[in-house]
Amino acid sequence: MQEPGSVQQKIACAFSTQVRDEPATKRANQSFRVLATGDLSLKALEADIHHALATEKVDGSCSYVTKYKDLPYLWARLDRKPTKHAEKRFRKFQSSKTSTEFTWNLDDDFRTVTDSWIPAHGVVQINGRLQPDENGHIPGWIPVEKGSKPYCWHLSTVDYDTGLALVLKPCSENNLLEITTVPLMELLEQTLELVGTHINGNPYGLGSKRRPVHFLISHGSLQIEKPLTLNLMDLTAWFEESPEGKVEGIVWHCINGVLIKLHRHHLGLQWPVPDPYLTARPLSINVDLTKYECDLETKSSFLVFARLNGKQFDYFKDIPWEDTEN
Q1: In the prediction, which pLDDT does 25 show?
Q2: pLDDT at 174 > cutoff 80
Q3: How far, in Å, are 199, 245, 251 from residue 228 at the CA level?
Q4: What's the rounded Cα separation, in Å, for the pair 54 and 41?
Q5: Do 83 and 110 form a contact (C-beta atoms < 8 A)?
Q6: pTM of this prediction?
Q7: What CA–CA distance (Å, rounded) separates 309 from 311?
Q8: Would you say residue 11 has pLDDT above 90?
Q9: C-beta separation of 296 from 302 below 8 A
């Protein structure tokens, strides 16, 4: 079976796009919309999207598992962005629509990052210097270390002492999903989506303010079972009418490793939606911590799910979050 690709860079749209001068549905205060046309993009065609693996695009925070200090660690997405002055200069250049190329001062135009920061795979280098992408960012990662307050919700999904991560994955029967523990070593070089109560406005309605929960989902793991035709009208109908279409978008994992996406906003459709498909599926919980000596923090999502170990629910909304005491 084809292995899903790793999400290291921004993913291109499956269709060519056009910009319209009307308020965006994706971002507040954005005065334009980027909409898909009916033509598949050249990049999608070159990657043979017609034979790609179609998967659910999950709305969360992109994460990565790789080694840090010789141990498997969870890393958070952290792009090197321009300084305020450089950003202003870049946006002015973009609005001028000139055909010349923008020139960055790589020494002064970008914010500093810690020594532990690493660039994402595929970042272009010229003469050993990292180059920003078309959005003016240098994609990269930063390790989520113990005690990190900015990444406390990332931390709630991993336990470095036992080497475990809290992961949602599909089971083979009856559309069932499972939340379970997975050794970080088994996730090495995978990218995953962090979802939960405090991520992106919680579009999936997970947990509660008193009982926040978070977990990881490996990219490409939630496959779309029914074949999709690569026709804009058919895809729009699928998003609007099919229960399986109540997702943020689709990511196609192509045989050559290229990833291609289609977001609901590319079709002028709203997100989030009531009762998204992810949380409308039955869920089994398999988080048994009795065989481990865990000294978990009170914010750890492991504790919430460990108290529900062995239970199965028809829907996520059936989980009694308030009854799971930390």
Answers
A1: 56
A2: no
A3: 29, 11, 12
A4: 16
A5: yes
A6: 0.92
A7: 6
A8: yes
A9: yes
Whether 180 and 287 have beta carbons less than 8 Å apart is answered as yes
> Tokens 């709305």 identify what position?
59
Residue 207: how many CB atoms within 10 A of its CB?
21
Q: Which amino acid is located at 156 in the chain?
A: S
Residue 51, amino acid: H
Q: What's the gap between Cα 313 and its chain centre?
A: 25
- Say if residues 143 and 73 touch (Cβ distance below 8 Å): yes
User: d(Cα 38, Cα 17) in Å, to the nearest integer?
Assistant: 9
- Indicate the average pLDDT of the chain: 91
Angstrom CA distances, 318 to 94, 214, 313, stand at: 48, 17, 6
- Which residues on neighbouring strands pair with residue 159, listed in sequence order? 164
> Alpha-carbon distance 258 to 42, whole Å?
12
- What's the distance, Cα to Cα, between the start and end of the chain in Å? 40
Please write the tens of the pLDDT for every residue from 180-193. Answer: 999 999 999 999 99
**Cβ-proximal residues to 282 (8 Å cutoff; 6+ apart), any chain:** 174, 175, 176, 177, 312, 313, 314, 315
H/E element, 91: helix 84-96
Rounded distance between C-alpha atoms, residue 109 and residue 182, angstroms? 40
Residue with tokens 């109540």: 246
Amino acid at 87: E
Rounded Cα gap, residues 132 and 266, in angstroms:
24
CA–CA dist 20, 8 (Å, integer): 28
Q: Count Cβ atoms within 10 A of the Cβ of residue 210 and give its class: 0-12 exposed, 13-18 middle, 19 or more buried.
A: exposed
Which residues make Cβ contacts (< 8 Å) with residue 200, sequence separation at least 6? 59, 60, 61
Q: Which of 146, 140, 190 is nearest to 300 (CA)?
A: 146
Instruction: Please name the amino acid found at residue 244.
Output: E
| Per-residue tokens: 55 | 């998967």
> In the chain, what's the furthest Cα-to-Cα distance?
63
Residue 166, strand partner residues: 181
CA–CA dist 40, 49 (Å, integer): 9
Q: Of 121, 11, 1, which is closest to residue 53 (Cα–Cα)? A: 1
